[in-house]
Amino acid sequence: MIPPGLIFLLGALLIPLLKGRVKKAYLLLVPAIVLVQLFFMHPQVGWEFQWLNMHLVLLNADRLSLFVAYVFAIIGFLAILYSLHVDDDAQHIASFMYIGSSLGVVFAGDFFSVVFFWEMMGITSVILVWAQRDRESRDAAYRYILFHVFGGGLLIGGVVAQYAATGSLALGPVSHGLAYILVLLGIGVNTVFIPLHTWLPDTYPRATITGAVFMSVYTTKTGVYLLARTFSGVEAVAIMGGIMAIYGVTFALMQNDARKLLSYHIVSQVGYMVAGIGLGTALAMNGGIAHLFNHILYKALLFMTVGAVLYSTGIRNITEMGGLARKMPITTLTFSIAALSISGFPGFNGFVSKGMVIEAAHSMPLVWVLLELASIGTFLSFLKLGYYGFFRENRNIEATEVPYHMRVAMLCTAALCVLLGLYPQLMFRVLPFEAHYAPFELLRVSETTVLFMITGIVFIALLKVFEPHHAITYDIDHVYRALGRGFLWFINNPLARGSQWTVDVFLHIKDALIWIGKNPTGAMVLLLITPYLRLVAILKGRQELYRKMIEKMWKSYPGEPVRREPIGDAVILVLVFVVAYGVYYLFLR
Question: Which of 149, 321, 338, 547 would bridge with 301, disulfide CB 3.0–4.6 Å?
Fold first, then answer.
């Protein structure tokens, strides 16, 4: 069976050859074929071959890889449907290759293949930012690619160290030592570990409307998948997940740019997945991977709805929105479903998977507290975005619903959020690990409902406090930039001057050696007799006479071009070295 990612990669080659409705049909046909293939695929290992003494596996299908591939293909189809209006082959090709390389990582059975597709993901996704074709997107894409080159370099270094230590490239838990640290940090860049996360809220708001939908899905989730393969049950990873959850939601609450708010919520929501993987129990792992599945659906839907607002109005800041519920009812409806889903409201898919992770986190109270607090912050964020962005009165806004295919994509994604929220058994049947969880226990549902009611009352009471406003929020990238400026100052000032001084010293040494080489004997005589003559001049008070004598001696150097007594020079030099060695041997040794 052909690796699903390869179908997308090969399918991208035909896109420039097609036009009009045929192209649109083809764009939907390829992900549909992959979806059908995945539903009929059973656990297997295939496409194995030897290359340069390495055992490579391009198709390692088990319950974990298949589960992640299902949602990658589903949302790939819906995101492509959402983007059918785009008349830019470069974006469609990049989207296909982005999806294909992400599936390549998911089905790879060795680290070499993972690294190959990992790097392809970075290259193809940056095109979706450049395609916006303005200065902000160009600069953001440059910073984005720098981060991913750094992360890819760490991952490659870790893979090399792992291979040196074990002699195997098989994908699995990483041995302790240098490989452990490098691979974890390399994955951590894509999985937005704090403080390696700043590329995401910097880049995603500057991608194209459709490009941001794709980017919200694949890069971070392939990182989560690879983390599950390599670092499950690591306590430090669980703690990092808790930190990510609360950190991301805190910064999200401060944002005015709607897509930047959603970007920070990716950091927060990925924190739940990372925490589940770090906790490592069957329930926690299932929860983390189920949250990956659910998050892809509601986060893609959120980017679709906010992208629809941007498409219709050109507005990205919450302060300029409002009144959209009346002008864009379908967009408002689907946004509301996505907001309730990400908040974890009962009856929506986020409630199920988030509850699984929080339930498993009782074994680590610190992580449990951070995740619970992040849940409250998430609901507050989307109360803010929903009220000020869609339901607040704004009679001056001009907006109409987006094209039909965009609305269909949003409605289908919203339907999946509700379906999996009401019938989570559909997802439980294909989860990779065996663990029991009952999401609709009365106590759990009632506690969550009461918590949401209290949070809603707090929001209404403090409406003015949560009102969005224009402000600059400094994240850790502000520190990076300050350090970068300091580094450049060091390069351009102390280091540059020190380098010039070093060069000058070596040039003087070179000139001195050339000068001595013209007449070694005469040079040694000059160097030895000059201080002696100056001392004599001072003692006798005849400085002017001796100065002229010394100047005459130095001007006459090196003397005749060819010495008449070369053997004599050699003898004198040998005698000097012999005497020096004799003095050292007798008196100084």
Answer: 338
Which residues fall within 8 angstroms of residue 491, CB to CB, at 6 or more apart? none
Cβ pair 91, 215 in contact under 8 A: no
Collapsed DSSP state (helix, strand, coil) of residue 54: strand
* DSSP track, 382-414: HHHHHIIIIIS--TT----PPPHHHHHHHHHHH
**Contact assessment for residue 151 and residue 140, using Cβ atoms and an 8 Å cutoff:** no
Cα within 13 Å of Cα(45), Cβ side: 9
3-state secondary structure of 50: strand
Are residues 8 and 34 in contact, defined by beta-carbon separation less than 8 angstroms? Answer: yes
In sequence order, the β-bridge partners of residue 45 are 60
The token duo for 424 is 């989570």
Other C-beta atoms closer than 10 Å to the C-beta of 259 total 23
Distance CA 168, CA 136 (A): 43
Residue 195, preceding peptide bond in cis (omega within 30° of 0): yes
CA 419 to chain centre: 32
**CA-based R_g, the chain, Å:** 34
Question: 20 — alpha (psi -120 to 50), left (phi > 0) or beta?
Answer: left
Q: Can you count the helices (H) and strands (E) in the chain? A: 26, 2
* Stronger pLDDT, 417 or 1, i.e. the higher one: 417
How far apart, in whole angstroms, are the C-alpha atoms of residue 353 and residue 308?
27
Q: What is the DSSP string of 207-276?
A: S-HHHHHHHTTHHHHHHHHHHHHH-TT-HHHHHHHHHHHHHHHHHHHT--BHHHHHHHHHHHHHHHHHHH
Task: Compute how many other C-beta atoms are within 10 angstroms of the C-beta atom of residue 120.
Answer: 19
Instruction: Name the β-bridge partners of 110.
Output: 170
Residues 424, 349 contacting (CB under 8 angstroms): yes
Dist CA 253 CA 498 (whole Å): 47
pLDDT value at position 588?
60
Is the CA virtual torsion 381, 384, 387, 388 positive or negative? negative
Residue 344 has pLDDT above 60, yes or no: yes
- Collapsing DSSP to helix, strand or coil, 418 comes out as helix
Average pLDDT over residues 385-403: 91
44 pairs with which residues across the strands? 61
Gap between the Cα atoms of 589 and 586, Å rounded: 7
* pLDDT of the residue at 159: 94
- Contact assessment for residue 316 and residue 385, using Cβ atoms and an 8 Å cutoff: no
Q: Is 560 a residue whose pLDDT tops 80?
A: no
Question: What HEC string does 472-517 produce?
Answer: CCCCHHHHHHHHHHHHHHHHHHHHHHHHHHHHHHHHHHHHHHHHHH
Cβ contacts of 535 within 8 Å, gap of 6 or more: none
Mean pLDDT, all residues of the chain = 90
Give 87-114 pLDDT, tens digit per residue: 999 999 999 999 999 999 999 999 999 9
Instruction: Dump pLDDT digits (tens) for 241-283.
Output: 999 999 999 999 999 999 999 999 999 999 999 999 999 999 9
pLDDT at 562 over 50: no
- Rounded to 5 degrees, what are φ and ψ at 525? -65, -45
pLDDT surpasses 80 at 235: yes
